[in-house]
Amino acid sequence: MSEPDRAQLQALEDIAVEVARSAARLIVDERPAGLGVARTKASATDIVTVMDQAAQDHLLARLGALAPDDAVLGEERGGRGGTSGLTWVVDPIDGTVNYLYELPAYAVSVAVVDGDPAVPGAWRPLAGAVVNPVSGECFRASRGGGAFRSVAGGPQRRLTLRAAPAHLGEALVATGFGYAASTRGEQAALLVDLLPRVRDLRRLGSAALDLCRLAAGEVDAYYERGLNAWDLAAGWLVATEAGAVVGGPGGRDEAPTSELLWACGPDLAACFGPLITGLARRHHGS
Ligand code: LIP
Asked: Is 0.90 topped by the overall pTM?
């Protein structure tokens, strides 16, 4: 597919916002009393609720009406092929454990990408939206169009990163952990090496919101290993359009993959990038 023009990108962003907001309303308004775990995936802590699946089914239906020729790849069961070359990559509830526990840090993440999102490094987000139904925040972006936040349907305010800390020791860094015990052991070992070198860490429980917090200047950096395309697609674009460097295991010029996503402001990237990629290599498979 040829690169969409500005009007086409804006139209894709508007669709992402519309369907993400619709699904965000659904997961709050239709949450059943006594919500429990419907099934598990990679481990006993990798949970799915009936609302994860209901929200994804809702996204598929809305995207089928608004973008019928596009493919859809979601975290939960279901998805479809397409003929347009575009794929909607959706996480119906990013931060599912927070949603189950009613901790107000979960979001619907919707992005449309070109390339194959199943092939690491072979795709890029074009437009996307991340909606936190509890805070009413809607983060939105499209390639080259900037990143914006609105709250409860209010005015859109352009997102910019916070001024870079003087050195890494003053950086507030967000991160997250996977669901597999073996992976968590590696992630903990990396944390032990990193924590003494930074101001502090924040573990919010949603990769999409972590990347939006970076874009909004509320953390200085973020990294995580083990993310899927649906966790990071929209947040990657929001952070990039706010001015962040978003890199992968090979550095700032490499796309993020499940092996590593890291992100920070350009002034911090010269030291945070090599540090986090080096620690990830050291602890991968440790
Ligand atoms: C979550 C990620 C988060 C990660 C969690 C979980 P989910 O996605 O957004 O960053 O640390 O372990 O993977 O599973 O709630 O969609």
From this structure: yes
The CATH number corresponding to 168-283 among 3.40.190.80, 2.60.300.12, 3.30.460.10, 2.60.40.420 equals 3.40.190.80
Spell out the residues 6+ positions from residue 128 whose beta carbon is closer than 8 angstroms to its own.
13, 16, 109, 110, 111, 112, 140, 141, 142, 233, 234, 235, 237, 238
Ligand 1 in contact with 206 (CB < 6 A)? Answer: yes
Could you say which architecture CATH assigns to the domain 6-158?
2-Layer Sandwich (3.30)
State in Å: Cα 177 to ligand 1 middle: 7
Cα of 7 vs centre of ligand 1, distance in Å, is: 32
| 3-class SS of residue 62 | helix
Q: Is 128 helix (H, G, I), strand (E, B) or coil?
A: strand
The full set of domain ranges for the chain reads 6-158, 168-283
Interval 21-65: pLDDT, tens: 999 999 999 999 988 888 888 888 888 888 999 999 999 999 999
Closest Cα to atom 11, ligand 1: which residue? Answer: 176
Ligand 1 midpoint to CA 47 (Å): 10
